[in-house]
């Protein structure tokens, strides 16, 4: 998922009162996207009438599909032209490590964009804790009447003291993928989930370096995917970064040490060397996508970007892919699979908050979302229940859709045997610690020879420092 660390600028100037425009390809490059007749609903046109001539600045957390980014731009262009407004949209990398710091600095300096959409699980808590966000409860309640309930996870990550500070935009499911043809050759079963130990052992069994088959397509190098992998193993083993309040660091536990030892053994033990693809120790967030599409991996963990790419690019691996919900560990007999939403936030000091909120309402439903969703199948999904029923694409466009919709409605929280309930209360400290790549740094030290218990203890101390910087005394 190639991304840029700098903002990249697109501006859409409202030129007419057109209510609909076709979605077409942008310039040269990949094949033209599916034609979606993007329309601005009359109710939104009426609300926008008083805002004609206005403008907003927007940040978009870059999607892991270039075609989806182009489709998103086209939807914004439709809105701008239909309402006679201007929307300046900048792309931003969610994995650069400094995104929140940049946004906060802009807000404090009084020159921030009006709105942005970002991962609610990863970033909303930090931005709220910094005092950068506007209460958008009124918008969310209005959208409930239009679109039904949002994804259950959003009630955890977007709500603080009973008020909404982010507007769910589109749902991003969590998932893992394995080569079902390789499993079939070895007589291994296809299941809705596995234990982490099963996945490790199966990966070794299906591997054959002489055929460029590497069963384990997961890295612990600095990347968002590695963060997700490491944290998931720790949680399913019974560990956690913070307690359920999100304020107390509890990282240094026997369960965390056991999980870290398990992960480290995969990358250190010569027994598992045949299942590790070349260069896995230096992978970035695009590497597992690229290697999966190159058909040399037997297992990977990713958002549905890799699934979307294989489908839209007609890669043969699509037909051989078994998507499943994830893995279990000693402390949990079901996967931690509840996903996240990219959600809109309106920054304090926004110059045109009314227009910003209107853009968010437009983008979250109807044909505006459909155009983006078709370019990133199963990666960009409705966050709102009734939007799932708004077009046959969401019910019959891919065999994975029913399971994805159920993930938006999964009862939460999920509680481990050690008492941690996930998703936990939004924790700015945890979000900042993960964004600083403390987990991946910890695993690198283990691979280089540090005892797991020592690595965990050191990382615990580093996490404590970050929590205290966020105002949580330990």
Describe this protein's structure.
This protein is α+β, with helices and mostly antiparallel strands and 474 residues long. It has two domains: 8-173 and 339-398, Periplasmic binding protein-like II (D-Maltodextrin-Binding Protein, domain 2, 3-Layer(aba) Sandwich); 176-336 and 416-469, D-Maltodextrin-Binding Protein, domain 2 (3-Layer(aba) Sandwich). The protein is 40% helix and 15% strand. The strands form six sheets. The chain has a seven-stranded mixed beta sheet with strand order 1-5-4-6-15-9-16, sandwiched between helices. Strands 12-10-13 form a three-stranded antiparallel beta sheet. Helix 4 (120-129) crosses helix 17 (428-435) and helix 18 packs antiparallel against helix 19.
Please name the defining characteristics of this protein:
474 residues; alpha+beta; D-Maltodextrin-Binding Protein, domain 2; 2 domains; seven-stranded mixed sheet; three-stranded antiparallel sheet; 19 helices; 15% strand; globular; disordered N terminus; SBP
CATH topology of the largest domain: D-Maltodextrin-Binding Protein, domain 2
> How would you sum up the major sheet?
7 strands, mixed
Number of strands: 18
The stretches of 5 or more residues where confidence is low (pLDDT under 50) are 1-6, 14-32
Pfam family, one: SBP_bac_1
Organism: Amycolatopsis sacchari
Keywords: Sugar transport, Transport
Protein name: Multiple sugar transport system substrate-binding protein
Short précis:
InterPro entries: Bact_solute-bd_prot1, SBP, TAT_signal, TAT_signal_bac_arc. Keywords: Sugar transport, Transport. It contains 19 helices and 18 strands.
């Amino acid at each position: 998922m190639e991304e840029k660390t700098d903002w990249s600028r697109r501006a859409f100037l409202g030129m007419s009162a057109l209510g609909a425009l076709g979605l077409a390809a942008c310039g040269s490059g990949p094949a033209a996207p599916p034609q979606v007749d993007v329309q601005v609903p009359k109710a939104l046109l009426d609300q926008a009438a008083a805002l004609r001539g206005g403008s907003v600045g927007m940040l978009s957390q870059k999607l892991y599909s270039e075609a989806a980014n182009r489709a998103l731009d086209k939807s914004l262009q439709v809105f701008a032209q239909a309402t006679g407004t201007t929307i300046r949209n900048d792309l931003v990398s969610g994995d650069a490590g400094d995104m929140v710091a940049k946004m906060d600095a802009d807000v404090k300096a009084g020159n921030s964009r009006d709105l942005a959409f970002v991962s609610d699980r990863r970033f909303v808590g930090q931005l709220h804790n910094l005092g950068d966000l506007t209460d958008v409860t009124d918008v969310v309640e209005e959208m409930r009447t239009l679109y039904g309930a949002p994804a259950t996870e959003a009630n955890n990550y977007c709500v603080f003291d009973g008020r909404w500070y982010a507007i769910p935009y589109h749902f991003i499911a969590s998932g893992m993928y394995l080569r079902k043809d390789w499993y079939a050759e070895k007589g291994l079963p296809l299941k809705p989930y596995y234990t982490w130990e099963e996945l490790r052992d199966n990966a070794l069994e299906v591997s054959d370096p002489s055929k460029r088959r590497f069963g384990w397509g997961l890295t612990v190098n600095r990347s968002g995917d590695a963060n997700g992998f490491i944290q998931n193993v720790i949680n399913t083993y019974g560990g956690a970064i913070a307690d359920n309040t999100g304020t107390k660091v509890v990282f240094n536990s026997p369960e965390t040490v056991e999980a870290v030892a398990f992960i480290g053994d995969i990358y250190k033990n010569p027994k598992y060397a045949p299942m590790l693809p070349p260069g896995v120790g230096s992978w970035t967030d695009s590497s597992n996508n690229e290697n999966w599409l190159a058909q040399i991996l037997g297992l990977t963990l990713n958002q549905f970007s890799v699934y979307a790419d294989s489908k839209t690019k007609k890669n043969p691996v699509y037909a051989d892919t078994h998507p499943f919900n994830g893995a279990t560990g000693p402390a949990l007999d079901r996967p931690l699979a509840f996903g996240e939403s990219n959600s809109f936030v309106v920054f304090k000091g926004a110059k045109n908050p009314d227009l910003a909120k209107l853009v968010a309402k437009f983008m979250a439903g109807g044909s505006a979302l459909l155009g983006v969703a078709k370019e990133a199948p199963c990666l960009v999904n409705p966050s709102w229940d009734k939007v799932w029923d708004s077009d046959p694409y969401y019910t019959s466009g891919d065999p994975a859709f029913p399971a994805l919709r159920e993930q938006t409605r999964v009862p939460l929280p999920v509680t481990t045997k050690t008492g941690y309930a996930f998703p936990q209360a939004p924790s700015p400290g945890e979000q900042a610690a993960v964004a600083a790549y403390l987990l991946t740094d910890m695993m690198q030290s283990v691979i280089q020879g540090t005892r797991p218990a020592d690595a965990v203890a050191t990382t615990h101390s580093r996490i404590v420092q970050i929590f205290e910087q966020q105002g949580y005394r330990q």
